[in-house]
Amino acid sequence: MAGATAAGARRIVRRRPGWGAVAGAVLFYCLSFTPSLLPRPWYLQAAAGAITAAFGYCLGAFFGFLARVCCPAAGERVRRAGWWALAAVGGAAVVTATAWSVRWQGDLRRAVGMDPRTTWWQWALVLPVALLLGALLVLCARAVRLGTRRLRRILGRAVPDWAAAAGAAALAAVLVVGFVEGFLLRGLLDLAERGAALTDRSTTPGIVRPASPTLSGSPASYESWASLGAKGRDFVGSAPTAAQISGFTGRPAKDPVRAYVGLRSVDGTEFEQGARSAAGLQERARRAVAELERAGGFRRKVLVVLGTTGSGWVNERIAKPVEYLYDGDSAEVAFQYSYLPSWISFLTEGEATDAGKALYDAVHARWSQLPADSRPRLMVAGESLGSYATERAFPGGVEQLTGQTGGALLVGPTPDNPLRETVTDRRQPGSPVWRPVYRDGRNVRFAQLPSDFAVPPGAAWEQPRVVYLQNGSDPVVWWEPSLIWREPEWLEGQRAHDVSPTMRWYPLVTFWQVTCDLAASEAVPEGHGHRYGLMPAEAWARIAPPEGWTQQDTDRLVAYLADHP
């Protein structure tokens, strides 16, 4: 009996793959080379090829099983001929797909302004690396199957065979999901957070503690320099001075206000875990308002509430333009809600939801107490996960956003942004999903290029104005699980100018391609992928232009910020 069990185990773990499984793996592997949103480095292509091939392997194995059940077994000669045919056709398909992929990658690189040439020896490594990764995935799957079979035998001693099979499958599924989500994923997230927390204690070279009382972390601040965290120190340490602003405008200027609260207490020790609860967020929001008031932020012309990314980062290209537009008579406030970078925080975006609402509600409550004729113009902004956090502060939709703020800038929004989703779903017929027109562009407009602000042509753009910056090739904007089973609208009809016309949707395959594109979203020139360059300056000049501001002023500001990042 023990020998039979061991032999069965060897049959599961060591047996050769079936014809259908190999055919499915080859087909999906070749499809993984087809064009996606962005050019991929060879190692990401290898990962995409391995994962998609593993899915093809599973599907091929399933259909092969059905064929064996429904059809009589083929003779040895037929099976041998089938394997020879698969070797010939599959080998030719792999070689052809690899060769064509070099051309496709060149087209993608050209579309985003990159050198179309690729390094041939790196691309030659894709197949062996993908084979290794794919084999590891298959071995893991077979190990799970082996465990399920043994569990079925154990249960079969006490219950009928059908019940043992169902129970073993259910228990195996629970254990695998529990291992991945409860142990593996949570363990990796905890490890990443501990590492990020250590990084958060560092300071970027060139960033020094500010002396101006208008900045958090200064000697006059309620928040210590150590408490701000790495991204908070970057934010306040990069603020332009009144002299720098005057050097651009030629007019007297003020030191701008930048208020920030980090994830650490005032003396630099870490918050308790409870500080990330609703009560903890409320406390940090209260402190952000107190810091803003101390620095005189409620006495400025404009006040911007910034949604941060996971690690508390604020893009300087979103923060600085407002300060130059208003001669430094501005205030900006933000706080940190996680140590993790945005692409990891996206898995736990509930923190972003609560953080954005807590900060905005606290600022708006204090702002509402001010005399109506002496309040600053209140605006909101955020990039990526920060745009999601910002939108979640307005459950009443666009009407609440435009009714309670003087403007909004939302850059590289996620597919879960609720306001963007509503606006996109309710766009006017004929406008594409990547550049939707909502209510004739009366308040809300989408842009990738400066010319997009004029869409729809001739339509009045009323105040307050809301601008979404979203690149057609930004995977952060378009990644969502439905890519597994449904063709996205951004591949239907007219496409954005930087999306390859040769890109096609394939079930499962496109999902993993766009997932890999996320990792390469910053490795492209500005204006493509998740890089928005100086478009925020163009947007702010249209959202909240000071009196007398012209397009020539905008061009000069953009050129200045390009030279003074």
Automatic annotation (TrEMBL):
GO molecular function: hydrolase activity
Presence of the UniProt keyword Nucleotide-binding in the record: no
Annotated Alpha/beta-hydrolase catalytic domain residues: 274-557
Keywords noted in UniProt: Hydrolase, Membrane, Transmembrane, Transmembrane helix
Domain of life of the source: Bacteria
Key word Cell membrane present: no
InterPro entries hit by this protein: Alpha/beta-hydrolase_catalytic (IPR027787), Alpha/beta-hydrolase_N_dom (IPR027788)
Transmembrane segments: 19-38, 44-69, 81-100, 120-141, 162-185
Domain Alpha/beta-hydrolase N-terminal: 33-240
Full protein name: Alpha/beta hydrolase
